[in-house]
Amino acid sequence: MKRTLLALMALPLLALAQGPPNCSQSLTFTTSTAGAAVPASAASTACAGWRLTWKVHGFTAVTIQLEGSQDNSTWAAFGAALVQEGANPTAWTSATTSNTIVVRASLPYVRVNITHVTGSGTVSTVLLGYVGTSAQQDTGGGSGGTATNLAGGVLGSVPYQTAPGTTGMAAPNTTTNTLCFLETGTGSAGGAPQFGICPTSSAELFYFSDTASSIATYLQMTAQPYSPKTTLTYTGQIGTVTNTLQNWATNAGVPGLTYIPAGQYLFHIHAARTNAFSGSIQLQCEFVEVDASGADIHVIGTSEPSVVLTTLEVEYTLAFADGDVYNLASSSSRIVARVQAVNTSILLSSNVLLYVGGTADSHIQLPVNGGSGGSPTGPAGGVLSGNYPDPGFASTQGNGPKTQLSTGSTVPGDCTEYDSSGNTVDAGFPCRAAVGTAEALTVYSRELVALPAGTLYFPAGGGALPDATEANVATLAPVNLIVSNFSAVLSAAPGVGNSVAFTWRKNGVSQPLTCTISGGAATSCTDSTHSFTVVAADVLDVQAVVTGTIAGTPNIVLTVAAGSGAGLPTSAVTYYVASTGSNSNDCLTVPTACLTLAHVVGLVSSVVPVNYTIHVADGTYAEAVSIQGFAPAQQISVIGNTTTPANVVFSGSVACVVSDGSYTAEVCNSGGWLNLQGVTLTGAATRGIFTSRGRTVLANVVQSGVTTYAIETAQGTVEMNADVTASNWTGYGVYNTQKSMFQLYTGTLTLTGPGSSSTGVGIVQKEQSLFSIHGNATASTATFSISEVNYCVYQTEQSEFVNTNGNFGAMTCSNASAGTATAGIYSGTLSNWFANPSGGITVNNFNTCWYADGNSFVAQKSATNNNCTATQAFQQAQIILF
Length: 882
Fold this sequence. Notes:
1% of the residues lie in helices and 49% in strands. It is built from one helix and 66 strands. The strands form twelve sheets. The chain has a 16-stranded parallel beta sheet that branches. The chain is globular, with a radius of gyration of 31 Å.
């Protein structure tokens, strides 16, 4: 069976989602027992495809099975021949990766049976049934009509069903355009279908406003960005408690979906707090389905918590990933974003500030559109009574294009491919890609397109005219994708001396996927070598650079293969690296470890955002640790020897490409989430551990390579959970800039600089950055700075150095000899210092132990000052040592 192009109209049709069920049941079990029977005849046509999913809380082991009965009395588990996905029964444990059973069978009654549990807890089950042929009856075709291609070409009239036993013939598609077969009715009986422009779906984005919702006390979410920027204040945050700050609701009838597909829910918020010296505040968001009046129906899920809020306005993007489709109770349901403050040990009342509108683009994003009016969008296609290739994807009722199930297919559920004259080319053509594969799509198709010399941009979906302004046609990607196998076709050659060079663009940047049609004979081009990855909400289009004068207005068709990528993982993955390994291995076990970390990182998929753990065996690796181009919600852990970090050595450097240039680094985390443990870094680079717009978690790391900045963070976060040591740096030990955060939770931070007479600085903070200490710390610096010479800690431009709880043990800021270094602690330009270590802070051998200016504030308890020419000095500032 060959795989050729399935004509679709837009990238949003790539989303694979479940449709509304015809039979359904949701149960919660607390012990081993059988659930109530679900009559298969609940739908107008008996449900013959069943999907069972479950979630376990508390129990350590559960055995669950799906059973059928002819008389609602004698029950038996469905056999293996009828099981399309999973195992029936499934013996579930915490290590089980699948929580799904899919069965194709037609029996009058179906039920869920929990036959065994270990421990105590609950099992929540969702059983969905779909109309269609059973596994025993399926001959590979849709019921109710003869298979006919429904996309493109003059194919003659097309049979359809509007109700069981009621058939008709639709007028043919007499154009050369790619069209979808659309149902015009709204009920289960539907109406007479016809060819039309394929509907598209997109990521659901809702912006927070300060406008009152129709639901009392709630605020409104809007589909368009809100303006102006507004600050909302929520007072009285105190103690250890989770408080709901605000509910934002969509308008009545919005989003108008019957289900939300599996995927990632995003919560993006601009926030700050007052009085950051007492306890901690984190934010999270509950995604809630409510009815039209605002009454809660179900909490869909809760995002991960933010890092600790500071007094600075910071934007946070937090995710909740749901591997299951969420079926809404009604298409009139509304979605609520319930923003909560998670307060810990707050002794002095604090306020939370949330910013919405204008430059504060606070919003939520749901996964790509689910179905509207009863069915999801999907491939163009056929007999409306036929079901999708597996029972978990859609019913066939309601509006929207339908999948053609061909009676002539060699594989059940496949479609038949036809040529432009209606002749069968392939009876085994897959109607759509399975999860984890790529689908060939027609992303652009239009007749009579003028191609003047210069640069044009085509939308990545549909058939709108190209535009000389890219922003006018750019399209948001609805889901994460891999785009490859690009093909462009013109109905006539460009002509001698003329050419059209097509190039895919992402976020305004040209991608390697490109091809050129040139000369008087060629009418097509392909690029089957290159590909690029797409993250949901990336902006896509296709650039065409036209050279020469092209006569006429040719028809244009652009196609790609796009999807989640064959074989990509759906759950966490563990890889292994060893100095004795080979990059020809699969990297999945210790005996089959790979040789280099770079090779393994190349296996990590940013398209399917599961977490990856990479174990690195003892040895020396002539390479750097580089994590570039991954999402902040996707954790990549590189774990060496956490007991003896000196046994795992990375001695190389890498070009770390960030928004303002490229820098050499021993560790580069550009935009991702890196968990680095148990390694020693000995390379030579301008940066040691460099984090830009990402999150790096450090534990048992030794940085001893020759660097300018040992640990630098730009618009990112570094968290420390165990000892970190940095030496041999010539500039700064820790450098926080551009609203960055260094969060020290546990362990000892040891910074050893180049000497008290040098220009080195232990910790430098600029541009509203934060250094927050939660545990023990030792800044054992022998030297300090650049233009501001010889400081232990230097902070300016509204930065803060605080400890947020009482676990901060002690801090030592010390030089080997007296009188040569300028200042121990410097706080300037509206910056604040507040530390209350139980073991105190010691400042030794500086000209001035404490220095503040520029309307800054310093408050320090238990300060010991030795061999400083002056204990403190300040100008237009305040220092309190107590």
